[in-house]
Structure formats: C-alpha cells, structure tokens
Amino acid sequence: MQTKRMTYPGRFLPYALLAPQVIVTLIFFIWPAGQALYQSLLREDAFGLRSTFVGLENFARLFRDGSYVNSLSVTVVFAVGTTLLSMTVALLLASTVNRMIRSRSTYTTLLVWPYAIAPALAGVLWWFIFNPSIGIVPYMLEMVGYQWNHRNSGSDAMLLVIFAAAWKQISYNFLFFLAGLQSIPQSLIEAASIDGASPTKRFWTIIFPLLTPTTFFLLVVNVVYAMFDTFAIIHATTAGGPAQATNILVYKVYADGFVGLNLGSSAAQSVILMVIVVALTMIQFRFIERRVNY
Amino acid sequence: MVENRPWANLIAHIVLISGVALVVFPVYVAIIASTHSLSGLLQGTLPLLPGGHGIENYTRMWQSGVSNAGAPPAALMLWNSFIMAMAITVGKLSISLLSAFAIVYFRFRFRMFFFWVIFVTLMLPVEVRIIPTFKVVADLKMLNSFAGLSIPLIASATATFLFRQFFMTIPEEMLEAARVDGAGPLKFFKDILMPLSVTNIAALFVIMFIYGWNQYLWPLIITTDPDYYTIVMGIQRMTSEENPQWQLVMAAVVMAALPPVLVILFMQRLFVKGLTETEK
C-alpha cells in the first residue's frame, strides 16, 4: 500500500492519530468477535454457572437442528426474493428515467428518498397497509377472493417482509443503475439504432451486457443487505413468525441469545454469520478491482 | 434518446408514475392514517383522504407519547435520535480523517497491521456479534447513556478508505510547499487537508447521519430507560402492543422519517456523491 513520496517523520504522532479508531475497533469489534469465537466452543450448564469445552459440538448441533436448517432456507428465500424484486423494479425505473430528458431529475428526486427511511419504519409501514383487519391491501385482495393473513400464513408473512425490504432498497439500486446507464457511450446506442435495432433489442444486446458490472456489484450488496440489515424489518413486524416462517439468520442469533439465552448456540451462529460476511466482502472487493476495466 | 416515438414516451411516463406511486403509497397511507381518530381507522377499511384529527394526534404524540406502551413523548425521542446521529456522524468523520491522515502522510512500523485492523470493522456488522458486544458495553457501564449509544458504532472502515483515496489524489507539491514554509503535520492537516476535503466530508456527513438516525438494534438492546429511547426503536414499543394506537404510531412514523428524508431532498447532490463513493 502506498504513501506519499514525501512524508512527515513521526515517531509518536501517527500512532496517536490512529489510536481512537484502533481502540474503538479493538474494544467493540475484535474483542467481541473473539469472545463469540471462544463462546462458540463452550457449552453452559442449565444454571449458567459452569461452562465446559465442547469443541465443534455447538456447530454440529446447529446443523442437526431442524429450526436452524429452516432458518437457513428461509434466509435464502428472503434474500433471493428481496434482491430480485428490488433490482428488477429499480432497473426498469432506471432505464425508463434514462430515456427522459427534461423530467429526469424530477423523477430521480421522487424515487430516491425512501433510502432515508429506516428499515424498521419500512416494516411498520407495510405491516400497517397489509394489516388483516384494517389494512387497505387485504381489503382489495378480498375483493378478488384472497384471504390475506400474515398472522397465520407463513407465505403471506414472507411476502410481506420481502415487500418491505425490497421497497426500501429500490432507491439505492435505482441510483446505481442510473449511474451505470449514464456511463454507457451514447454512440453505441446510436450505431445500433441506425442498423435498425429496436429499443428492446438494444436493451438486451447492448445496454444490459454493459451493465453487468453494476448488476453484479448490486447483487452482492443486496444479498448483504437482505441478510444483515433487515433485522429491524423482521423484529418490528413478524418477529420471525408465524411458526418461524420469517426467522432469518440474523434474527435467530438475537432471539436465541437474548430471548432464549442459549449463549453457546447463539455464538456459533454468530461465527457462521461472520464467515458469510467475510466471504461476501471478499467477493465484493475482488470484483471491484476488476470493475475498472470492463 | 435516439428516435422520437410519442407512444413510447407516454408509456415511459406511465411506468415512472406508477413507480413513484408505488414508492409513495405506504408513506401516503401513513400520513393519512395519522390524521384520523383511532375509531375512524378501526371502522373497517382505511380511509384514503385526510381526516380532522391530525393536529390532535401530532400534539399528543409530541407532548405525551404513549405512556402505557412505554413510549415517551416524541419530542424527547427525536432529540435523543438527533444526539445519537450527530455523535455517530461527527465521531466517525473525525476518527476516520485522523487515521487516513496517519496512513497516507506517515511511514511508521505496523502500518499495514493497523490498516487491517481497521479493515476488519467492515466485516463485522453489529448484528452478527450482538451478544458479546452487549456484554462489553455492559461491563464498561455504558448502558443507558449516549456514550453507549454512539461510541461502539463510530469505527468506520469505509470513511477511512474514502479519505485515504482522496488524500492520495492531492498533489505531492502541496506537502512540499507546506514543508518548505515550515508547516508541521498538524498545521498541514488543519490548514490544507481539511479545507480541501470539505466536499467529501459533507457528502459522507449526509450518509452517516442517515445511518446514525436509522439505528435500531443497538439502541433497542442497550437502552432500558425510556429517557434514552430513540424514535426509530420507540415506535416498535408502540406496535408491539395488543391493540396499537395506529393513529399515534403513524404520527410517530412520519416524524421519525421526516428529518432524514429532508436531508436527502435538500442535499441530493451530496447524498448521491456520498453514496456512490462510499460503495466503491
């Protein structure tokens, strides 16, 4: 890693400058992560008085445990659903906005502000409009003969949290797709249309392939978002229910540790999640290096 | 656009207007619901036009909150949110500026090591290490305090990397000239680097403020004293009741969403800059 050609000499100053950041990181990031790693190898007795070293037993138990395997598959459905839904809508909106000339900035402003809404609030908003007794959407669904009830139906609850999570993420994806679209040289599109390619054909054969780096980047970011930043949506609405149908991994870590007080298992789950984040971050970084010369 | 197709334009506008409608709809419903009385909301279907109880609901939420649900007045919660968001933002920006300065303008032992220590924070979101972090904060007696709400969240790899990247683009001659004129490192930092970074700082400020304001899990677990509730987590107390007072909940939702939304609307250019640059 480079520095400037000319630097300041310093014996203590650089350490002093780094100290606040490093101290906060050590105390609140690395130490707790180490604790989680350590805890994940221990098992506490029923009274929390004594803990014994059990090796990888906590991990083995997790994968034998039906509720953890269920949580894994719930997370996959949730992450894939949220990512696909919000990216598709965002791409459609971004490529449409990109054709506009005069109204482009107005539409952009109208579409970006949900980024500011906290996930918890997004959850509450959708929880409210889908409320089985007073919500407006169940009322409309009933007219077409569907009984919406996310309190009993696991699939309804899953749809609800996917809607809320995807809704909040549209503006983010939209901004990145729009930036990606604007970096595509206009001459390519003009050349194609002189050759008689229709707008649809141009989109699929020129624009979409050139957007691949943006799309791939957003895929990773959205999966990370759906897996880790959506805790609030679940907690403020379904609380993992009904019957664990929306119990995603980050929510389960919290529920098992704080509510269930099963520290060993919760720590093991933390460790698994950390491995997933590290893997996703690595993918993101390797990809960013390559994005420069596409 | 390449060719002129009036029909395609019309369809494009229809697509965009429905997109905007989809995005606005939940918030519109919230605003409408916050202007009705509870009985008006419970009558069957949700009304789609404003009612006449708006001022009453907002005043009540602002001044007294919903005490039986454990939610203090919104004025207090908004204030707490503001303090927390500002502390997190200012904290993140200052420690990141300092560490980026050290990494770029000094050569010292263990530089790479420190760089990796900072990098690690990127990989450990609070959600995945929630229990041990809670323990650390409890041991440090920081529960129910603004220090506990903000300090554990102020480490920032993204901000450090962004400032590092930016400092690398500053011409070498700046430092040479400063040194010829006898400026020491701190003077150089204060009088040259800081003024040059103003736009970057402002852009990150917008992103970090929204991040801080929208914190949920962290305030939820470390505050048990209603005096420290922030608005985003306080709303959850009201909805988890048996029969939530939806008109007050929605008034609180609108008040909680307003500050960050205004920040985005009024500082859109900085926001877009901050967002696209932090994620690179």
UniProtKB/TrEMBL annotation, chain A:
<keyword id="KW-1133">Transmembrane helix</keyword>
<feature type="transmembrane region" description="Helical">
    <location>
        <begin position="202"/>
        <end position="228"/>
    </location>
</feature>
<dbReference type="InterPro" id="IPR050809">
    <property type="entry name" value="UgpAE/MalFG_permease"/>
</dbReference>
<comment type="similarity">
    <text>Belongs to the binding-protein-dependent transport system permease family. UgpAE subfamily.</text>
</comment>
<feature type="transmembrane region" description="Helical">
    <location>
        <begin position="12"/>
        <end position="31"/>
    </location>
</feature>
<keyword id="KW-0997">Cell inner membrane</keyword>
<dbReference type="GO" id="GO:0005886">
    <property type="term" value="C:plasma membrane"/>
</dbReference>
<protein>
    <recommendedName>
        <fullName>sn-glycerol-3-phosphate transport system permease protein UgpA</fullName>
    </recommendedName>
</protein>
<comment type="subunit">
    <text>The complex is composed of two ATP-binding proteins (UgpC), two transmembrane proteins (UgpA and UgpE) and a solute-binding protein (UgpB).</text>
</comment>
<dbReference type="InterPro" id="IPR000515">
    <property type="entry name" value="MetI-like"/>
</dbReference>
<feature type="transmembrane region" description="Helical">
    <location>
        <begin position="157"/>
        <end position="181"/>
    </location>
</feature>
<dbReference type="Pfam" id="PF00528">
    <property type="entry name" value="BPD_transp_1"/>
</dbReference>
<dbReference type="InterPro" id="IPR035906">
    <property type="entry name" value="MetI-like_sf"/>
</dbReference>
<keyword id="KW-1003">Cell membrane</keyword>
<dbReference type="GO" id="GO:0055085">
    <property type="term" value="P:transmembrane transport"/>
</dbReference>
<feature type="domain" description="ABC transmembrane type-1">
    <location>
        <begin position="72"/>
        <end position="284"/>
    </location>
</feature>
<keyword id="KW-0812">Transmembrane</keyword>
<feature type="transmembrane region" description="Helical">
    <location>
        <begin position="106"/>
        <end position="129"/>
    </location>
</feature>
<keyword id="KW-0813">Transport</keyword>
<feature type="transmembrane region" description="Helical">
    <location>
        <begin position="72"/>
        <end position="94"/>
    </location>
</feature>
<keyword id="KW-0472">Membrane</keyword>
<feature type="transmembrane region" description="Helical">
    <location>
        <begin position="267"/>
        <end position="288"/>
    </location>
</feature>
TrEMBL record, chain B:
<feature type="domain" description="ABC transmembrane type-1">
    <location>
        <begin position="78"/>
        <end position="267"/>
    </location>
</feature>
<keyword id="KW-0997">Cell inner membrane</keyword>
<dbReference type="Pfam" id="PF00528">
    <property type="entry name" value="BPD_transp_1"/>
</dbReference>
<dbReference type="GO" id="GO:0005886">
    <property type="term" value="C:plasma membrane"/>
</dbReference>
<keyword id="KW-0813">Transport</keyword>
<keyword id="KW-1003">Cell membrane</keyword>
<feature type="transmembrane region" description="Helical">
    <location>
        <begin position="7"/>
        <end position="33"/>
    </location>
</feature>
<feature type="transmembrane region" description="Helical">
    <location>
        <begin position="192"/>
        <end position="213"/>
    </location>
</feature>
<comment type="similarity">
    <text>Belongs to the binding-protein-dependent transport system permease family.</text>
</comment>
<comment type="subunit">
    <text>The complex is composed of two ATP-binding proteins (UgpC), two transmembrane proteins (UgpA and UgpE) and a solute-binding protein (UgpB).</text>
</comment>
<keyword id="KW-0472">Membrane</keyword>
<protein>
    <recommendedName>
        <fullName>sn-glycerol-3-phosphate transport system permease protein UgpE</fullName>
    </recommendedName>
</protein>
<feature type="transmembrane region" description="Helical">
    <location>
        <begin position="113"/>
        <end position="131"/>
    </location>
</feature>
<dbReference type="InterPro" id="IPR000515">
    <property type="entry name" value="MetI-like"/>
</dbReference>
<keyword id="KW-1133">Transmembrane helix</keyword>
<feature type="transmembrane region" description="Helical">
    <location>
        <begin position="82"/>
        <end position="106"/>
    </location>
</feature>
<comment type="function">
    <text>Part of the ABC transporter complex UgpBAEC involved in sn-glycerol-3-phosphate (G3P) import. Probably responsible for the translocation of the substrate across the membrane.</text>
</comment>
<dbReference type="GO" id="GO:0055085">
    <property type="term" value="P:transmembrane transport"/>
</dbReference>
<dbReference type="InterPro" id="IPR035906">
    <property type="entry name" value="MetI-like_sf"/>
</dbReference>
<feature type="transmembrane region" description="Helical">
    <location>
        <begin position="143"/>
        <end position="163"/>
    </location>
</feature>
<keyword id="KW-0812">Transmembrane</keyword>
<feature type="transmembrane region" description="Helical">
    <location>
        <begin position="246"/>
        <end position="267"/>
    </location>
</feature>
